[in-house]
Amino acid sequence: MSVSEGSARSRRGRRDWRPFHRPNLIRLFMAMTPGTPLSFAPSRCPHPQHFTTGIHMKNAPRVPSRRPSKQLMPMPMRLSPLLLASLLALGAGPVQALDYVWLGGTGSWTDANKWSLLGLPDSGDTATLSTGSAILDSDRLLDRLILAGGNRGGSGLLTSGALTFSSGSLFGPGTTTITGAASFSGSNNQYVDATHTLNLNGGASWSAGSGTISVGSNARINVASGTTFVDAGTLNPSGNRYLAYSGNGSFNNAGTYERNGLGTTHAYGFNNSGTLKINAGTMLMRADSSSSGQIQIASGAVLDYSGGNATISGSVSNAGLLRQSAGNLTLTAAASIDGALQLDYGNFYNEGSHSVASLGLAGGNRGGSGLLTAGALTFSSGSLFGPGTTTITGAASFSGSNNQYVDATHTLNLNGGASWSAGSGTISVGSNARINVAAGTTFVDAGALNPSGNRYLAYSGSGSFNNAGTYERNGLGTTHAYGFNNSGTLKINAGTMLMRADSSSSGQIQIASGAVLDYSGGNATISGSVSNAGLLRQSAGNLTLTAAASIDGALQLDYGNFYNEGSHSVASLGLAGGNRGGSGLLTADALTFSSGSLFGPGTTTITGAASFSGSNNQYVDATHTLNLNGGASWSAGSGTISVGSNARINVASGTTFVDAGILNPSGNRYLAYSGNGSFNNAGTYERNGLGTTHAYGFNNSGTLKINAGTMLMRADSSSSGQIQIASGAVLDYSGGNATISGSVSNAGLLRQSAGNLTLTAAASIDGALQLDYGNFYNEGSHSVASLGLAGGNRGGSGLLTAGALTFSSGSLFGPGTTTITGAASFSGSNNQYVDATHTLNLNGGASWSAGSGTISVGSNARINVAAGTTFVDAGTVNPSGNRYLAYSGNGSFNNAGTYERNGLGTTQAYGFNNSGQIHINSGTFLLRDAWNNTGVARIAAGASLSSSEANFNNHGRLEGDGMIRTAGQSYALLNLGELSPGSLSTVGQLAIDGDLTLGSTSVLDIDLASLSSFDAISISSDLRVGGVLKVESLDGFGPQVGDSFKIATFSQLVGGGRFSQVQWLGSPGLTLSVDYNASDITLRVTAVPEPSSWALMFSGLALFGWLSSRRHRVAEQ
Question: By its UniProt entry, which InterPro entries does this protein fall under (predicted)?
Answer without folding.
Answer: Ice-binding_C
